[in-house]
Design a protein that fits this description.
Length: 262
């Protein structure tokens, strides 16, 4: 999903996909390692960064539409010590600003509904609210197009609504797990979600993605159509919230350098 969106946004300007998942549970480090890019390990948190250094740490990816974008992930060997990546979304926004991209796809892995509830009980901001608070952020929430998947998604949307999150700029993607018409509970859930969110996009099952993953060079026509619909939904939500064209994004203030642990 993240790669389809990155390819779609790359047609409009320089785009990067930030991989926030742990290395051993993410598909992106393989892409970085294959190209010999340094990845996130080349960007020490306690030293100033330059645009050149950030750009050189990225790998390059291309979609079936020919658009090229960049990927920033931890591409080291599986046995390397895990990186301590920053949790605050503002830190990733600052990194993207240094890199100079126009569009950023943050491939996050935190459990959305649990994060909202945990933050509420602890009286903290929480990661979800932090991502929503970034300039021109359009969250994309994905779920399997199954009865259980839609029920979990509906619960997450209820949690977002209860916390006053802007559902009017939240895009939902329902990912089919097989060919055929979605079950009745999925169709009913999609109808409810359409009325409460910016858009609901149905991503059909594609055997090429199942067989080749992110490296799939051939995609079904309806997969490409769904990817284009997703891109339009994200851009439409941003334009509806902030205008068209989008104003220049604010530059983040410099963060104080991290103090190495003694």
């Amino acid at each position: 999903m993240a790669s389809l969106l990155a390819a779609g946004l790359a047609a409009s300007g320089p785009t990067v996909l930030l991989d926030l998942a742990p290395r051993l549970s993410s598909p992106w480090p393989v892409r970085v390692a294959e190209q010999g890019a340094d990845g996130l390990a080349a960007l020490p948190p306690d030293q100033p960064l330059t645009r050149t250094a950030v750009q050189q740490a990225c790998a390059t990816a291309a979609g079936v539409n020919g658009a090229r974008w960049q990927v920033l992930a931890d591409g080291r060997e599986w046995h390397a010590q895990p990186l301590t990546l920053p949790e605050p979304p503002a830190a990733w926004y600052q990194l993207a600003a240094i890199g100079g991209w126009q569009a950023v796809v943050a491939d996050t892995v935190h459990p959305l509904a649990h994060d909202i509830l945990a933050a509420r009980c602890a009286g903290e901001l929480g990661l979800t609210r932090g991502w929503y608070g970034l300039p021109y952020a359009v969250p994309v929430v994905c779920a399997a197009a199954t009865t259980d998947g839609v029920q979990a998604l509906q619960q997450a949307v209820m949690a977002l609504h209860a916390e006053g999150m802007p559902l009017n700029r939240t895009v939902v993607v329902l990912v089919a797990t097989g060919d055929g018409r979605p079950p009745a509970p999925v169709r009913a859930g999609a109808t409810m979600l359409t009325a409460r969110t910016a858009a609901v996009v149905h991503l059909p099952y594609d055997p090429h993605i199942r067989a080749h993953g992110l490296m799939a060079a051939r995609l079904r026509t309806r997969t490409r159509q769904a990817a284009a619909q997703l891109t339009r939904a994200v851009l439409d939500a941003a334009h509806a919230a902030w205008g068209e064209p989008l104003p220049d994004a604010p530059q983040p203030a410099p963060l104080p350098p991290a103090v190495p642990a003694s």
